[in-house]
Automatic annotation (TrEMBL):
NCBIfam families in the record: HAD-SF-IIIC, MDP-1
GO MF, one example: acid phosphatase activity
Signal peptide interval: none
Protein name: Acid Phosphatase, putative
Organism encoding this protein: Angomonas deanei
Bias-annotated ranges (Polar residues): 26-39
Bias (Basic and acidic residues) ranges: 43-58
Region Disordered, residue ranges: 26-61
Length: 158
């Protein structure tokens, strides 16, 4: 089997999601848009919400809307890469971290909590559940204004 890294560190802005925090005018709170039952302005369509026989749609986890309606979207293969790191047994001993000097750390923390990844519970018949993206990084989240070198040293000390 091919060796895997012991530590993987991701930046947030421009690496996992776009736009960057400084580009947002609305900021927190971020909301999860619904698939197929919201119009372009983010309002619930009446015919969708009043139909009791229709199964509730899964939330869209590829974008979150800031207070002004600007979408923050996961970039490219972000979801697939992070889901692999979360579920693939080859990475069970790999530490996955975040190092970011983003302008709004509390916004980033909220996004890490609200973006979801699909986790496979191998102990429960491979049942799938949605977990916060931030749970992948455990306590290895260094999101504040400092040099990357300082943040990386802090991560390595943990």
């Amino acid at each position: 089997m091919q060796p895997v890294p012991k530590v993987i560190v991701f930046d947030l802005d421009g690496t996992l999601w776009n736009p960057e925090m400084y580009q947002l005018s609305g900021g927190s709170p971020f909301t999860i848009p619904r698939n197929n039952n919201t119009n372009k302005k983010g309002k619930q369509n009446d015919h969708e919400t009043n139909n009791n026989n229709k199964k509730e749609e899964e939330p869209s986890y590829d974008a979150l809307l800031d207070r002004s309606g600007t979408a923050v979207r996961l970039i490219g293969e972000t979801r697939q890469v992070l889901t692999t790191l979360l579920n693939d047994p080859r990475y069970a001993e790999t530490y996955v971290a975040v190092s970011s000097t983003c302008d709004e750390p509390h916004w980033a923390a909220e996004l890490l909590e609200k973006f979801k990844l699909e986790k496979i519970n191998h102990n429960n018949q491979n049942k799938k559940e949605w977990v916060p993206m931030g749970s992948l990084f455990t306590d290895l989240k260094e999101v504040y204004y400092a040099s990357k070198a300082d943040q990386h040293r802090t991560i390595l000390k943990k």
